Amino acid sequence: MSTNRILRPRSGSIDARLPVVAKPIVVLNKPTEGQTTATSGAAGTSGVGTATAVKAPQQSMERFVERLENELSLLRAQLMEQAEQFRKDIALMQEYHRKEVMHLREENRKERLEREKVSGLLEQLVATQSQQQQQLLPQQRAGAATSTVVSSPDQDQEGGSWAEVVRRKPARQQATQRQQQRLQEVQPRTNQPSYRVAGQHQQQWQLRGQLLRNQRQQQPRTTMTAAAKKARKRPDTIVVTPAEGISFSNMYKTIRRSPLLDGLQEKIGVGRRTPKDIMRLPLSRDVDSAELCQRIRVNIGENGVAIVRTEMAQVMVTNIDSLADEDQLRQAMLTAQGKEQVEATIDMWERRDGTKRARVTLPRSEAEYLAGKRLILGYTSCCVWEVPKASLAEKRCFRCLERGHFAGQCSGEDRSKVCIRCGVEGHKAVTCIGKVRCLKCGGPHPIASASCNATAQQ
């Protein structure tokens, strides 16, 4: 059987086939031990660096948070302190207002009592005047009945004349009647309107003054004794002690020729020398002795020492804030007096209620100026009042430690080196820790105490 097929090969010829491209053969060599260590070291180094880079921001953030927490705690403490101070200030202000209200109530009570007293005096005066008028009315009527005299017709026919004679009232009776009329006009009425109260008070005070003047006129006049008169202030004295080698005359010339004392020389009296070569310069009463002494100190420098001898007095300062100290009290006194320097000794102590009190020893003129005034110390207004001067019987002798005389007049036993508290030598009462014992009777009290039997018998 024949066919027309053409047999073809399944694939072309070797030459007709596509060219085969040879792929490169890569041979992987196994790394050695040194190369493996180096590679792992590099990888580890890169890992540690990455971890360090991650931890650095976390640490800075932690430090920032810690710093913020510290600042917040400080702010919280400051706020708590300010709140506590604010509460204290509020409590002090409330206490101050409470005392002011109590003071106003006390003043209103005193004023009410004074008005009642004046009203009682007024009623008494009106009653007295009414009784006097009632006693004088019968006499006036009897005088008016007998005062008119008419002549008879027979006397007129005989050439006489008639006349009406009227007796005039004495001037004292007229003044009494006028005074009584005034009292009746100003006598208080219960149905008066409120706008007349001020006028009534003024009239009551006027009537009270008039009543007191009448009482003084009726009482016999008495002369005021010397003890009743207030003692006149002694002039101040500046005591200058020259240094060694400086004579009295040179010191006196230095003071008198100083340009720092221009305008004040006429306030300084004649300098006198004591037996111990100490200079005494008397001053006039109208000069500031503290300021003048300070100028003299600047003038003489190291050539001497100047102090002021003046009459001293004591004032008591009450209601002082517990936070105030002596320096603040001294500055408050300087501000009140308008001065730059003050010679004062301050003894301050704290009371049971938390406030403080101070006893201030200063010149008498300054004590009289501050008495009755108020000083602002911290958050309080402090009262100042003058301490009464002690009598001679209360003053203590520093030689025998008893009372009633001074050391210059003492003739008793010398106890100047003995402690006034326990009676033992070698220390003073300020540092004494022993038991209190009297040197005269042995009792548990200081010598010359009010409870000492020996002192009372003496």
Automatic annotation (TrEMBL):
Residues 396-410 form the CCHC-type domain. It comes from the Eukaryota. Keywords: Coiled coil, Metal-binding, Zinc, Zinc-finger. Residues 133-145, 172-190 have a biased composition (Low complexity). Residues 133-195 are annotated as: Disordered. InterPro entries: Znf_CCHC, Znf_CCHC_sf. Residues 58-116 form a coiled coil. One of its GO terms (molecular function) is zinc ion binding. SMART domains: ZnF_C2HC (SM00343). This is CCHC-type domain-containing protein. It comes from Anopheles merus.
